[in-house]
């Protein structure tokens, strides 16, 4: 049974639904991460975040958004993460390995374990008209636009220790 089967029956399968997006602009050497956390009924936004960082990759941006979202749901929750990054989902689910992203994969696993989260990762086609996927895509675009306009909200790179420390200060 899929999430939407449960949604139609009026019994949500997950406590929270998360949409994430990550982007990277190679010529300008910076990218953005964004996430939104929704209640299990998928109709009430509870939290959203976006940020720009330099010297990263789209995979790191996407994984950073997923980790950030998981740090903003209560411990012991069940979470459906919907992402348009096939590679990011493959990395986090262990289908593929990447040395350069291993620190963030480990951070994801640690957060999931330490917070006793039940997480399902689900790929969604980008720009397919899904309301919340389009929304987080726009959050990334907005963050990149703010950066280009005035250079605000930028960190140097996306590394797991700095990401975790930064998020914990919020």
- The overall average pLDDT, rounded, is 81
Q: Indicate the overall shape.
A: globular
Strand order of the largest sheet: 5-4-1-2-3-6
Query: How much of the sequence is in beta strands?
Result: 25-35%
CATH topology: Nucleotidyltransferase, domain 5
Secondary structure: number of strands: 6
The stretches of 5 or more residues where confidence is low (pLDDT under 50) are 155-160
Estimated radius of gyration? 15 Å
State the end-to-end CA separation.
Answer: 36 Å
Sheet with the most strands? 6 strands, mixed
Helices and strands, in order, run as HEEEHEHHEHEH
Specify the helix fraction band: 40-55%
> What structural category arises from helix and sheet content?
alpha/beta
CATH superfamily grouping:
Ribonuclease H-like superfamily/Ribonuclease H
Helical element count? 6
Number of domains as seen in the coordinates: 1
CATH architecture: 2-Layer Sandwich
Q: Which class in CATH terms? A: Alpha Beta
Fill in the keyword field for this structure.
170 residues; alpha/beta; Nucleotidyltransferase, domain 5; six-stranded mixed β-sheet; globular
